[in-house]
Amino acid sequence: MSELIAISSGELSARINPLGAELWSLTDADHREYMTDADPRFWTGHAPVLFPIVGMLNGGRYRLGHSEYALPKHGFARTSRFTVVQAAPSEARFLLSDSAATRQAYPFAFGLEIRFRVAGMALQVEAAVTNPGDAPLPFSFGFHPAFAWPLPGGAAKEAHEVIFDRPEPEPIRRIDPASALLLREPQRTPVDGRVLRPRAELFEADALIWDRLSSRSVRFGAEGGSWLDIAFPDCPYLGIWQKPGAPFLAIEPWHGLNDPEGFTGDFHDKPGVIMLPRGDSRRFRMDVTVRPG
Hints:
This protein is mostly beta strands. Helices cover about 0% and strands about 40% of the residues. It has one helix at about 100-105, and strands at about 5-10, 10-15, 20-30, 50, 60-65, 65-70, 85, 90-95, 110-120, 120-130, 135-140, 140-145, 145-150, 160-165, 195, 210, 215-220, 225-230, 235-240, 250-255, 275, 280-290. Strands 7-8-9-10-22-18-17-14-15 form a nine-stranded antiparallel sheet, with no helix packed on it. The two termini are about 35 Å apart.
């Protein structure tokens, strides 16, 4: 296992694995953990970075003109070793660039930098995708943090809520269990006004996916316990997921989606794909503010 990079504000501490530039731990001054325990009975991930796709491709392959390429679910960044560019007391930066191995699956030049910074009780994560190539760069990006459920503070698991910053009346999308592709028909939202009350049975058919999202932040927690304020100003989609019964809830801001059922179009036309002009960059931020109970 890679040696974890630790950063701290004195009030809040984070540990990041250079393998995947993945946040593994987020603790307060009392050493209480706000991230998943990664129990292998459920899921060994913590907070993978999703690039250059979000979700699953139809048949595990995508098309570029007359060529086809294979990519695993959520892309290759989460299993790639990033270079540690900076490891300061309260800030760390990690960089992944294209290589001969990445170009076999994704034939583009790119840079992906992930910056973590803690200040007070807030963690800021910022991803920057750059295009050093000669042609537009098609890609998607997503965050996939899994938080402790229940959070520290003593509130019961069933008392926890996800509160959106705006009402969310629009239907949501679900995933076909066999293919892991987006089902064609939207489904009724489980959000009551602004409030989602997560429960294990909601996730028996995998993630809840908002592709017509109004909010750009949510609160997760329970009265009498801790809360997390999670802001994602640059991501228009959201997934919420867990393995039913697991002690975590993944709250995932995305700019990308699984392939819809039957999708056989060009990668440039995949839902949520960004076309980044040559020489340009695109940033995605996620802020997690801890309010201990």
